[in-house]
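Thread: Newbie trying to understand structure tokens

Hi all, I'm a second-year student working on a class project, and my supervisor (Dr. K.) asked me to get a predicted structure for one chain before our next meeting. I've only ever worked with sequences, so writing a 3D structure as a token string is new to me. If someone could post the tokens and maybe explain what I'm looking at, I'd be very grateful. Here's the chain:
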Amino acid sequence: MTSSETQPLRIIALEEHCLSASVDQSLYRNKTSFPPPVIESLCDVGEGRIKSMDAGGIKLQVLSHTAGYAEDVLSYQAVNNDMAEAVAKNPTRFAAFAHLPMADPLKAADELRRCINELGFKGALVDNHAGGRYYEGPEYNSFWATLEEFDIPFYLRPTMLTSTMADWYQGSYSPQASMGMSHFAFGWHFDTATHILRLYAAGVFDRFPKLKIILGHFGESLPFFLEHIQWFSANWGPISRSFQQVYAENFWFTTSSLKGVAPLACMLQNTKLGRIMFGIDYPFLKMQDGVEWIEKMRASRLLKKEELEMILYRNAELFLNIK
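---
Reply by user tm_fold:
Sure, no problem. This is what the structure looks like when written as tokens:
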């Protein structure tokens, strides 16, 4: 059954990646094991991508640059300009999240301002760390303040571990097992969740109580551990709100890298339905994966039709002001 037979073009997808022509693509090819078709799909922000979106029932993708391959501030600016050009060519099919030089928080704040004021972006999507550096320190206050000033979301997504981090996952098994364990299957998701706990423990959500944080992959494990974290974080210091309160008030989530129904079933136990939005993680997952997940959701009867529509597009329309 094709997507056109199952759904109209109404779906909005939030974690959909591209690779700018302004970045050295040979560097990207050398650093990953992704096959050439994935690289080609990353580079296509035109008719080929739109054709795939049509086949998957996707009305609009919020573009984000793939992880970790802009080398300096000028490269980040060029990447954002390229995404803005793609949006300008197809404004009913694309929006964009800013790609930011998080190793330099002041320059990241400046580039964020430019992306919002001049390029009309919907927020920012950044790597979980900048060369092993996380974002809880006071040097990032100006960056968080800029996000609050514009009232826009900050999407924190997993990224490649440093060599030191990756060494923790070495063992008496194949390099493929080590890579999967440290990254795609497990490690970088938990590293992203731990980053959120760092932000909470450091008082970032006290200093900036209106932050809007998006996490992909059904919350990077946080919904599963929410009550556990709530219990053990009670004595972490003079923090004005509990972790459960911050979770309820400051976080939104997407279904990126969707595979089954179980992660969403878990989320619905402790997460507001209005905080969950759709994402595929294209092109690392295919549009057809999104179609199949929607069909699994319908068959599961976990959600009513109107509730599934909230996840597929209504929540994103409201949250990102997309018409």
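A couple of things are worth pointing out once you decode it. The longest helix spans residues 73-89. The CA atoms of residues 37 and 163 lie 27 Å apart. Feel free to ask follow-ups in this thread.
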